[in-house]
């Protein structure tokens, strides 16, 4: 099999994987407001000044150099929203130049008058497999936003969401765990749209009460058979990356969804604010020792290949 490096790592701790969620950006040429001139006050990892630099395919290759990365999926990175298709066009050009990313999760607002046109334009790019469009959410549990414009109960948002099925797009769901009950209702209403929950449902509150609430929410959305999970991004705003604490999150999440619906993702370079790429991959590999080699292969690359309709790695 061919990797994004063009070589195979035979080291004992080298993991073979498809990275189901990462970003690249060129701040010199392209406009990302949150990385250029509009600080995101409530960024979930706090200070993100270190991200305000170009992160190109060669930077990703450098970070991933110790592992066998077969293919990658690029997830939209909040490119200028007045040009929603621009990022797709640029990432497609990066694929032609570097051979990856191999699939794109693009962006389209669901509530704007041109939502259907933007979805159709995204569908014109062969690498686009799905859409991520963040709904309006509350910053903490119990904050009332349900039914507000842009939320998952907003009729306009739901009409826009319905356009995913017309193009065969999946949906990358990014919400904190206290919105997963609402997301489960969306999944139930659109059973033919495949949904993948990003970043392990954001288990930010590691207190026993917080983890219990996260598990209940995860169990609720996992009941919907069209929902899958990206096991990724365990970083905390005010805490270090801790393997033992994160092991509990990973094993609980995989047990709730079943390993057949879980896929690995790095969320680099964002996750790099808390952990080095190689250390992240090796740590998750250690966490999965209770599972068989075949199950681990499904987790690290097989499930992402199926979900995002990637080429068979054996043919690469």
What descriptors fit this protein?
single chain; TIM Barrel; 8-stranded parallel β-sheet
Describe this protein's structure.
With 316 residues, this protein is of the alpha/beta class. It has one domain: TIM Barrel. Helix content is 35%, strand content 12%. It has helices spanning 33-36, 57-63, 86-98, 115-123, 155-161, 163-167, 180-189, 208-222, 243-257, 277-287, 293-307, and strands at residues 16-22, 68-75, 103-106, 128-132, 170-173, 195-197, 227-231, 262-264. The protein has an 8-stranded parallel beta sheet. α4 (115-123) links the parallel β3 (103-106) and β4 (128-132). α7 (180-189) runs parallel beside α8 and α8 (208-222) runs parallel beside α9 (243-257). The radius of gyration is 18 Å and the shape is globular. 44% of the residues are buried. The mean pLDDT is 95.
Low-confidence stretches: none
Mean pLDDT: 95
- Strand order, largest beta sheet: 1-2-3-4-5-6-7-8
- What is the CATH superfamily? Metal-dependent hydrolases
The secondary-structure element order is EHHEHEHEHHEHEHEHEHH
* Backbone structural class: alpha/beta
CATH topology annotation: TIM Barrel
Main sheet specs: 8 strands, parallel
Number of helices: 11
The percentage helix is 25-40%
Question: Secondary-structure blueprint of this entry?
Answer:
Elements: E1 16-22, H1 33-36, H2 57-63, E2 68-75, H3 86-98, E3 103-106, H4 115-123, E4 128-132, H5 155-161, H6 163-167, E5 170-173, H7 180-189, E6 195-197, H8 208-222, E7 227-231, H9 243-257, E8 262-264, H10 277-287, H11 293-307
Parallel strand pairs: 1-2, 2-3, 3-4, 4-5, 5-6, 6-7, 7-8
Helix pairs in contact: 7-8, 8-9
